[in-house]
Each structure stands twice: as C-alpha cells, then as structure tokens.
Amino acid sequence: MIDIYEAIKKRRSVRLYKEKKIENAVLNRILEAARLAPSANNVQGYKLIIVKDSQKRQQLAKAGLYQSFISQAPIIIVGVAVNPELDQTSENPFYAIDLAIAFDHLTLVAASEGLGTCWIGAFKQDKVKKILEIPEKCKVIVLMPIGFPDDKPKNRSRKSLKELIYYEKFSNRIGLGAWVDII
Ligand SMILES: Cc1cc2nc3c(=O)[nH]c(=O)nc-3n(C[C@H](O)[C@H](O)[C@H](O)COP(=O)(O)O)c2cc1C
After folding, report:
1. How far does the centroid of ligand 1 lie from the alpha carbon of residue 7, in Å?
2. Which of 81, 68, 73, 87 is nearest to 142 (CA)?
C-alpha cells in the first residue's frame, strides 16, 4: 500500500496489459474503495458491472471507438447510472459526477495495488447496453479496463496551478497570498 499522494502521482492511463489475473482479494479492495465514495444525497444510483468473460470483453472493445486494447485487460468494469432521468435535483448531472468520484477512488486504489486502469468514455451506448443486457432507461458512463500494466506510460503534462486558479472571482489571477506557489 502506498500513500494517497503517491497513488495520485503514480496513476497513469494504461493502454497495454499483461494477461496476469487479478486476485479476488485485490479486486474486492478496489471495489470497496468505489463503494465508500461519496454521492449526491448518498443515493449511489449506479451499478458496477464486472466483466471477466473473454468474449464479452472483446465485444466491449468493439463497442468502443478505437479502443481495441481494452479487451487485453483481464477485467473491464462498466459504470452504469441506473436512473439518470430521475436525477433532476440539480442543473449538473449528479449521476455522472457520482460515478466519476467512485471510479476515481477505484483508479487510485488500483494504482496503489500496482494495477493500471484507463477511463474509457468513447463508446457506443447502445452496443454496450446490448452486450451486457442493460435496461434502456440506464446510462452507461464509463468502461474501465483494469489489469497489470505491460507498459510504463509517460506522465502527461498538466496545466500549472497558475493557469487553473483564480482568486475570489472569475479571471482574477492575483492572490492575496502566494500560497498556491508554495504547494
Ligand atoms: C472522462 C474521460 C474520458 C476518457 N476517455 C478516454 C477514451 O475513450 N479512450 C482513452 O484511451 N482514454 C480516455 N481517457 C483517458 C485520458 O485520455 C487521460 O486521462 C488523459 O490523457 C491524461 O492522461 P493520464 O490519465 O495518463 O494522466 C479519458 C479520460 C477521462 C477523464
């Protein structure tokens, strides 16, 4: 186990996997991290479908747009919002936000267990639903391959804090303290 800052720094999108299987105990720890994630009104209005079957993984890879690599991973976890139409408490789509937080927990614990993941957002909704027999009213938000990395992806660049942070109001780049530079 590594600490949370190390896991954040270590996590990369992995697009090449070894065939090696993931032990159930490890998978359970990763899923537990998703289960403990916060959600709007604590509703957890989603399901995570664990796909190990090789034929289904290949079908899911074909349902992705240029994502053939995902079938190499021993497991694909599919994040499904169960009732997105009922999510009208906010202008923002809580059903997607909830799943994003759950999957972020999942990716960080996976990284700390030495596993790689990749968020896949480009796929054909209807095809994934058909393959996994997901009801029409649901919405598939993410496919996530998970497995032992067969690659060491380089760090992707990120914007600097200076580019991301405003102080007190939109567009104000001048802070009252230089705390951002200290982090
Ligand atoms: C919402 C979302 C959708 C993404 N969709 C895809 C995708 O369809 N295919 C893919 O290969 N990577 C996808 N990614 C991975 C990003 O390309 C990747 O996170 C980004 O380039 C930064 O690289 P890193 O994860 O290694 O830090 C997605 C990431 C997010 C957060």
Report:
1. 17
2. 81
Q: Enter the DSSP assignment of 43.
A: -
**Is residue 76 within 8 Å of residue 60, measured between CB atoms?**
yes
Q: What residues have CB less than 8 Å from 41, skipping those under 6 apart?
A: 89
User: What is the 119 CA–ligand 1 centroid distance (Å)?
Assistant: 5
pLDDT tens, the chain, 183 aa long: 678 999 999 999 999 999 999 999 999 999 999 999 999 999 999 999 999 999 999 999 999 888 899 999 999 999 999 999 887 777 899 999 999 999 999 999 999 999 999 999 999 999 999 999 999 999 999 999 999 999 999 999 999 999 999 999 999 988 765 555 544
Helices of type H across the chain: 4-10, 24-35, 54-63, 94-112, 125-132, 161-164, 179-182
Nearest CA to ligand 1 atom 18: 13
Ligand 1, CB within 6 Å, residue ranges: 12-13, 15, 67, 118-122, 153, 156
What is the DSSP track for 100-147?
HHHHHHHHHHHHHTT-EE--B--B-HHHHHHHHT--TT-EEEEEEEEE
Look up the CATH number of domain 4-154.
3.40.109.10
How far apart are the CA of 120 and the centre of ligand 1, in A?
Answer: 6
